[in-house]
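Q: Mind making up any chain with structure tokens?
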Amino acid sequence: MSAEPTSPGPVRPPARRLVLASRSPARLGLLRQAGLGPEVIVSGVDEDAVSAPTPADLARVLAEAKAEAVAARPEAAGALGVGCDSVLELDGRAHGKPADAGEAVVRWKAMRGRSGVLHTGHCVIDTGASAAGAGGRASATASTTVRFGHPTDEEIAAYVASGEPLHVAGAFTLDGRSAPFVEGIDGNAGNVIGLSLPLLRELLGAVGVAITDLWV
């Protein structure tokens, strides 16, 4: 005979507010699945105006720019701001969201049967009073190798027609219609979707915050 289910205890409020500097529903979903309840404030950063020497650096610099923009907003005062940005590295070049359907088709024909590296930059900024001292900010990039399959020209056309690749870095995602076209990855899956939870935990720890204190 199984034991009677017990009622869950009272939900404690998180120790700090968490603000996600991104409109990405995938990143928001990952944070919620991990027990976090972030607010969303879109940074408004012009990504095309940002440059860096390598794709990995570009992902980090973009994440820092987004976190900084949101941390400066009055509505983020006292919160922990999290900025993220992803780029796909292929042939040494950084690829973000394709500009249009034509570019998405060209991108997929270049990617199929090959491997690329998805870089996601992460930046945490503590906008609270303690952030005035050392340790109020931390940033890093997580990188995951992605092995693409061999979708046919017809499959690529159908995928691009769905509109999905125009809204995601690298013109693909693991949690959408392109998942059947990805043979495998080497690294963190969440990082490819948009946010590495293990790296976020490390960065929060670097600014003195335990991720368990942010559970809702």
Remarks:
- DSSP finds six helices and seven strands in the chain.
- The first strand starts at residue 18 and ends at 20.
- Residues 88 and 95 are 5 Å apart (CA to CA).
- The two ends are 32 Å apart (CA to CA).
